[in-house]
Amino acid sequence: MKISRPNLHQIWDTEIVERDMEISNPLRYADELDEKFRAESAAWEAAGIHVDNWAWESHERAETGVYDAFPEKIGIEPDTKLKSCAENNHMGKRMFEKHLAVGETYQSNAAKVAETALAEAGVRLAMILNDAAKTAN
Question: What does each C-alpha distance from 82 to 7, 58, 78, 90, 94 come to in angstroms?
């Protein structure tokens, strides 16, 4: 059974950004983020390339900004031995059956976290690409 309702990943990865970009277009939205985070961008760049640290920062952001901020606490899944990544013990179906919903407060807070993460990721990707271009020459 395929569940067509959005899941938390879809809400964070797509719907929150599309909601905030609704009256804009991707290029204009990127320019708006660039302007909004201009001061932070310099600090992100000055910190250098540290991919392992970035992964942990992202993990911590997910814990605090995504899961801990969710209006209803979702219990930790029992440790189940799965045969493959595709086998998820019917997680989507079980979560769907809880009928959880994210309200406006959660979405507004999530939008702030998502904007920061997008701006930071853009700066960091540019750093990696610039470093790769220097190495290639």
Answer: 21, 25, 12, 11, 16
